[in-house]
Amino acid sequence: MNSSWLIGGLILGVGSSLHCIGMCGPLAILIPFGNTKKKQDFFLLIYLLSKAMGYGIIGILFASVGTASSLVIGQKMLSILSALLILLILFSNFVKPRFLITNAISASISRRIHQLKFNSSWYHYISLGMLNSLLPCAMVMVAASASLASATLLSGFAFMCFFGLGTLPALFIVKKIQMKLGAQTRLKLRYASSVVGVLLSCILIIRGFSSHTNHKGRANQISICKPIIEK
Question: Most CB within 10 Å of its CB: which of 29, 54, 105, 156?
């Protein structure tokens, strides 16, 4: 597994934290994490790690699609298509209304939050974190689109997990200081986090074209043979 690929997922997660503060931050503030400081830190950590694990499962699903597609169109073309898909998601995030949260996921999260008010068991925070990872989010879709270009299912899982881990510090801070942001501030954060997505798409495009060039160069080198001298 390429370590730079995992670092890329972590950097994308850190960059996406700006988006998460505006979108996922209000939800984290609403969740009760216990009465004592130790309980709050422990349950919050479980919730955030479960959310990262949920992203990892999404990475497996997208990587499996990418692995199957690479057999048809090749890994280089898949990398370029993943980059174009990222740009499409980022562009549509601003020119069209974003997808609404599905009723099933929204209702499940509401039930979990209601249960935590009366029974703050640790396993409730695991299910809540998993459900939160399924909420429609532009930056999650950007990361998932990048995981299409993963060479294996494990790398897709790890990429999305590292993406989730990159978002943890910002959400942890938001919950601790109970930060609330206005609509204009959230919009500015969305623009800032989108820059990271654009940079990732550029890296994937360069990766696709450079891989194609290197492959072509190797092919030409192999095809050159010494002429046979007839005696």
Answer: 156
**How wide is the angle at C-alpha 229 spanned by C-alphas 224 and 231, nearest 5°?**
165
The closest of 201, 193, 213, 198 to 149, measured between CA atoms, is 201
- State pLDDT tens for residues 117-172: 666 778 888 888 888 888 777 788 888 888 888 878 999 999 999 999 988 888 87
119: its two tokens? 């029974």
- Asked if 19 contacts 93 with a C-beta cutoff of 8 angstroms, the reply is no
Residue 221: other Cβ atoms inside 10 A: 8
Domain ranges of the chain: 3-223
CA atoms within 13 A on the CB side of 215: 10
Nearest by Cα to 98 from 195, 163, 23: 23
Q: How many whole angstroms separate alpha carbon 53 and alpha carbon 59? A: 10
C-alpha–C-alpha distance, residues 10 and 164, integer Å: 8
Query: How far, in Å, CA of 196 to CA of 40, rounded?
Result: 31
Amino acid at 24: C
